[in-house]
Amino acid sequence: MNIDQLREDSARKQKKGIHFIIGSVIIWVAVFLIHSTAMDIDSKNLFTFCATAPLMPIAYFISKILKIDFTQKDNPLTSLGLLFSANQMLYLLIAMWVMNQQPEKLVMVLAMIFGAHLLPYSWLYKSITYRVLSVVITIGCLIVGILFEPKIVALVMVITEIIFVIALVIELRVFAGNEEEVEA
């Protein structure tokens, strides 16, 4: 297989990573609920970090429901996709610094990190949805985070992630339709 065939194979078998985006809706709902409480900001931020931890198991569970090949060991680009996610872990050091220096801006920074880390997936999955929403999320959350409290940033992320899922479903249907045309 050439690189384009590997990318198409990854997009098809991984369903363009929709299981992770659905999982992130759940995570952002949790963050919204945490920041809707009367807890102090330090406690909210600690629970926010804890709420982000189960994304992988949630995505795995969703992949089983949607019959997505979670590991896709037969495609070498799967390890590239893991690398795209691993870089987000390094950016969490920035979030930890923000948590200490500007605690009320942590949710904004986490949302921006999340949005920015999606951009390489636009290449991997040949996805305009990832390309557009990675920029929209990053810049949009910067603006919303400067103007509003963390709870509003989390709410914007919930809404944006739902839109993301819907856009991916549409993109997957078009992708599947194009594959059928090629086979015919």
In round numbers, the mean pLDDT is: 94
Radius of gyration: 17 Å
Tell me the overall shape.
Answer: elongated
Uncertain regions spanning at least 5 consecutive residues:
none
What is the number of helical segments per DSSP (H or I, 4+ residues)?
Answer: 9
Number of strands: 0
Please identify the structural class as seen in this structure: mainly alpha
Distance between the termini: 20 Å
**What can be said about the biggest beta sheet?**
none
Order of helices and strands: HHHHHHHHH
* Helicity, as a percent range: over 70%
Strand content: under 5%
Number of folding domains? 1
Could you walk me through the main structural features you see in this protein, from its secondary elements to its overall organization?
The chain has 184 residues and is mainly α. The chain has one domain. The longest helix has 34 residues.
Topology:
Layout: H1 3-13, H2 18-35, H3 41-52, H4 55-65, H5 77-101, H6 106-117, H7 119-124, H8 128-147, H9 150-183
Helix pairs in contact: 2-3, 2-4, 2-9, 5-6, 6-8, 6-9, 8-9
Give a concise summary.
The chain is mostly helical and 184 residues long.
List its traits.
184 residues; mainly alpha; 81% helix
